[in-house]
């Protein structure tokens, strides 16, 4: 399935792994790239030197292309932005903000820049600023989210940009989701939740099992009232957060409640008091597989569905 995205990135399949904080480290990124997709290392809130080490470890595991996600709300975003240039990273995606101030440096270094956007306005701004593609991420996604759904956002972004290809994200977990994204005009997908449970993923087994056991209605959003909505699976933490949020507690007090809770869930397996970030598609994810098994299975399914449309 050749698209402008597979050609631009030099990958076999139009599947990009999300740059998930604490989850998207070198083992997962290398496994997705080895399986023919594009693996990403998530810069998240990590210092530049930690990200540099991750990049070097991924290079040791795969000769195929992989990328780095720069989380723009990170206090270390400036450092990580420089590290990707110094390490010769081929592809950079950005999240949770506007990457305009790094664009010139990245383009001069020959980096393929793909901002994640949650609105048409930012997509257009990014194209004018020199982005090579955009990821249009719907509110079904895990983690930090925008308002529009994938179904509504993707075709509007496809129509709004003039030249660059669009990657769909949010709520995609199998070949049907990939085929649907292509029907909306996307030329690749970005997926996070399904890859969290990959055999190569280093997240705690409790976290994987929480996703595997999740039902359709298990998704919750914290922080809406303060303009920093984060989607995760509901548990004691989200109930407590939403209770305090309804009481009108300040953003600072609520943030304190969630400090370090993603790490607690991912590394220590505390899925009761930790933050179990995952997208709404968690209910569809039912088994642990290798990244290659996942990608082969999804591409076969998508190919069958799209076969009749491509002729
Ligand atoms: O970035 C994400 N997802 C994330 S980042 C993250 S780390 C975090 N941890 C705790 C609390 C908050 C963040 C977890 N998940 N997705 C990409 C994304 N970007 N979704 C939405 C946006 C976005 C939103 C607003 C991009 C730009 C924007 O405004 C741009 C502007 O003009 O500032």
Features:
14 helices, 11 strands, about 300 residues, eight-stranded parallel sheet, three-stranded antiparallel sheet, binds ligand TUI
Plain-language structure description:
The chain has helices spanning 4-9, 26-34, 48-61, 77-86, 100-108, 120-128, 150-160, 175-183, 193-196, 205-213, 236-246, 251-258, 261-268, 291-310, and strands at residues 15-17, 39-42, 66-71, 91-95, 112-117, 134-137, 143-144, 166-169, 188-191, 219-222, 230-233. By secondary structure, it is an alpha/beta fold. The strands form two sheets. It has an eight-stranded parallel β-sheet. Strands 7-11-10 form a three-stranded antiparallel β-sheet. α3 (48-61) links the parallel β2 (39-42) and β3. α2 packs parallel to α3 (48-61). The longest helix has 20 residues, at 291-310. It binds ligand TUI. Residues 21, 44, 71, 73, 95-98, 116-118, 122, 137, 143-146, 228, 230 line the site of ligand TUI.
Helix % is 40-55%
What is Rg? 18 Å
The kinds of small molecule bound in this structure are: ligand TUI
Got a strand count?
11
How many helix segments?
14
Q: What spatial order of strands do you see in the largest sheet?
A: 1-9-8-6-5-4-3-2
Structural class of the secondary structure composition? alpha/beta
Q: Which blocks of ≥5 consecutive residues have pLDDT under 50?
A: none
The major pleated sheet works out as: 8 strands, parallel
In percent terms, what proportion of residues is strand? 5-15%
Shape: globular
């Amino acid at each position: 399935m050749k698209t402008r995205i597979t050609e631009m990135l030099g990958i076999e399949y139009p599947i990009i792994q999300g740059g998930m904080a604490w989850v998207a480290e070198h083992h997962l990124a290398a496994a997705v790239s080895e399986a023919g997709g594009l693996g990403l290392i998530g810069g998240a809130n990590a210092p530049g030197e930690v990200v540099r080490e991750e990049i070097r470890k991924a290079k040791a595991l795969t000769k195929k292309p992989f990328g780095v996600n720069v989380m723009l709300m990170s206090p270390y975003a400036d450092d990580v932005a420089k590290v990707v240039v110094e390490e010769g990273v081929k592809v950079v995606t950005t999240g949770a903000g506007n990457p305009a101030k790094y664009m010139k440096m990245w383009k001069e270094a020959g980096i393929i820049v793909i901002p994640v956007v949650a609105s048409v306005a930012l997509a257009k701004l990014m194209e004018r600023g020199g982005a090579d593609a955009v990821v249009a991420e719907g509110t079904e996604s895990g983690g930090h989210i925008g308002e529009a759904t994938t179904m509504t956002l993707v075709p509007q972004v496809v129509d709004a940009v003039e030249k660059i290809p669009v990657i769909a994200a949010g709520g995609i977990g199998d070949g049907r989701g990939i085929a649907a994204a292509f029907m909306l005009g996307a030329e690749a997908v970005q997926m996070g939740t399904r890859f969290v449970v990959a055999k190569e993923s280093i997240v705690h087994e409790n976290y994987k099992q929480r996703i595997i056991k999740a039902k359709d209605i298990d998704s919750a959003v914290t922080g809406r009232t303060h303009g920093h909505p984060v989607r995760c699976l509901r548990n004691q933490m989200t109930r407590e957060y939403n209770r305090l949020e309804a009481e009108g507690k300040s953003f600072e007090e609520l943030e304190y409640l969630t400090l370090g809770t993603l790490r607690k869930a991912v590394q220590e397996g505390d899925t009761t008091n930790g933050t179990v970030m995952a997208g709404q598609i968690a209910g569809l994810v039912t088994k642990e597989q290798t990244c290659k098994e996942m990608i082969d299975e999804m591409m076969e399914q998508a190919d069958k569905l799209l076969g009749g449309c491509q002729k």
